[in-house]
Amino acid sequence: MPPTRVSDDDSVDPLIRKAAAWSWRLLVIGGVIAALIWLVGRLQVIIVPVALATMVAALMLPAVDWLDRRGAPRGGAVALVILGGVGVFGGILTFVVSQFVSGLPGLVEQVTRSIDSLRAWLIEGPAHLSREQIDNAGNTAIKALRDNQEKLTTGALSTAATLTEIVTGAFLVLFTLIFLLHGGRNIYSFITRIVPVQTRDRVRDAGRAGFGSLIGFVRATFLVALVDAVGIGTGLAIMGVPLALPLASLVFLGAFIPLVGAVVSGFLAVVVALLAKGFVYALITLGLIIAVQQLEAHVLQPLVMGRAVSIHPLAIVLAITTGGVLAGIVGALLAVPLLAFLNSATRVLIADNPDQEAAELEASDAVVIVAHPDTVPPKAGRDD
To answer: For this UniProt entry, which segments traverse the membrane (predicted)?
Structure first.
């Protein structure tokens, strides 16, 4: 009887075969992800405005739908909400800039007095430094600034060169926002026609659930940021800290980057209080910021963010870090909304009962998806 011939596959340990099979699949997946990241980087000028427009649309869509349900023309509702938003934002921005311009000289004067007091303490206090040593340190700092003046000027010029991109991006955000508010559901219905019929309903439900979570996230973040800004701004104004309103505005903007933004903006407020009013006021400002953050974490977040946008803090930190590495501040800003969208969309997409999962998400406090009957995308079985 001839000996049994052992194949090459049979001679390899099963664990090695499985590892090899997983390896080439992971390499393919990694290659696709790398290609997507490269493509997003190349199209960042387009993708970032569209993403920002989607976030703004998530904030404005409930108001447009509310006007639509009460008989207002869809186009008129979109125009009214956008013009109202631009008017409010422009007015607040103008007021903040004017307050910054008027309050900056006072801050400079107080900082100058603080520096003079610090210099006197260094000379007459326990350090017993000589005036020559302090002057040398100041001259060294001035020389460093002069030596790097060319780099600073080049950076300013490069920033000015991006002004055209900023203006173009702003127009693209506005243009995209108009169409998303007017017929975004129909656009989504049209795009999902490329999905096979047997899974089209599930994909559409997943997209609706994801966008619902995005609405909940943006709405909740806006409310939390507003409360943070009002609380911290009021405390700074009562203490007489200069630039209280601009600092409150920074707190408001920083709150849109969870965890990290609040820390950075709060640190700036503490630094201004330290320079302008002294160590005691800086400690009071720090206590005020901690108190507001505790109110946000234990009261506001549980009330306004429901199950649909319940994301583990570790996932938030990793998402912000990844977004910041890949796309800077804009990436950190968009990372958590994207994570909230993918979280709910994936749960519906892989659920055993997608209709029940979507219903549970829509019933949560953070998701309010109210659509006019004429704008709801039809089910797959009715549009084929």
So the answer is: 21-40, 46-64, 76-97, 166-188, 209-238, 250-271, 278-295, 315-342
